[in-house]
Amino acid sequence: MRLIGGAVIAFVLTLTCMSVSAPAQGQRSQDGQAIFRFDTFGDEQLWTDFLRMNEAIEAVSPATALSVGLKVDVRALPPTVIKALKADEIDLNDPAVTLTLLKLNAVVGVMGKVNDAGELTRVGITCALCHSTVDDSLTTGIGRRLDGWPNHDLNVGAIVGLSPALPADLKAEFAKWGPGMYDPRHHAFDGMNLIGLNSPSVPVVIPPAYGLKGVGFETYTADGPISYWNAYVGISQMGGQGTFRDPRIGLFIRQTPDLVTPKLAALSQYQLGLRAPEPPEGSFNRRAAQRGKRVFYNEGGCGSCHSGSTFTDVLKGPRKGRPFLHDPSEVGTDPDYASRSATGKYRATPLRALWQHPPYFHDGSAKDLPAVVDHYIRQFGLKLTDDQKSDLVEFLKSL
């Protein structure tokens, strides 16, 4: 079977690249979806100037990129390429194909500039890198975008470990994260250097960015509302150019012009509009789920913390604008990550689309929903029968 190499496929796609390029900067500032998908906030200063990831990515094949969890948006591909992919006529082991995909803005969450000589000169990332995936409608890792879905295949540590600029010990620490995990409390980037925040690293599960409307405090430790966290991540973690200040954690970053703050309102509006996906038809037993609902609110007592339409009590504190939180010892979870946050505690997790995003808890310590139920049975000394446990799991799968 004839394989189309990078040079040939690049020629085939030349006429299509302009039509699928990212929106112009002025449009992005007004369009939350475009910001979420395509805006790097100027974080090329981290990924290109500091980490030199453009040098590493030039040698990465699509097969390797897919193996570390990067995704390809099939809707950014012209029909000729889709046809060739279906016929297995594109060499996914050719790094030149990766550059062509970047020219098409088809790699979800990665923005690259390729010059006429075929060199990747600039590379940055967007919110979609961690908080989007694809439906695999074409093949594994290639399909239609699913904005807000956590990319639990994404191995950020392995990707960053490709940087020629990082020392071996730091790469080794990142390599321990594994797929779907990231430590936002380990370091920060101030526009010039990586600043160490906490060590050793305590990675957490990449959370979903859907179903956040009405939650009020969208992170594990409820440090602030969604725009607070978008600013923290966009500036200190993604490496975007902007200003972030939080004396609670002793972090002060100032960069001008600020390319992040003016876009936070539109970005949050888009994120809050992302609805949690419904469970697939036939994925749970409806009768058992109805029985499990009674267990949830009665014998299990789960509704005392996971209350209301969002299934969290984070907004039920005595002071408006202050989150209601739980000590790690109260809920039997790891205290280390919380101790590195601005609050030192955890909020009750909103139970949205649980079927979609195992593992559970901030550290991924529960591999599935039965493990979640077992954890709370031990923590609170619940007396549930095996049938009640099974029914409760079916209810959680239905949310």
Structure, described:
Mean pLDDT is 92; it is low at 6-29. The chain has a two-stranded parallel sheet. The protein has a two-stranded antiparallel sheet with strand order 2-3. It is built from 18 helices and twelve strands. The N and C termini lie far apart (47 Å). Helix 1 runs parallel beside helix 8 and helix 12 (226-237) crosses helix 13. The chain has two domains: 6-272, no CATH class; 286-313 and 348-398, Cytochrome Bc1 Complex, Chain D, domain 2 (Orthogonal Bundle), CATH 1.10.760. It is α+β, with helices and mostly antiparallel strands and 399 residues long. The relative contact order is 0.11.
Attribute tags:
399 residues; alpha+beta; Cytochrome Bc1 Complex, Chain D, domain 2; 2 domains; two-stranded antiparallel sheet
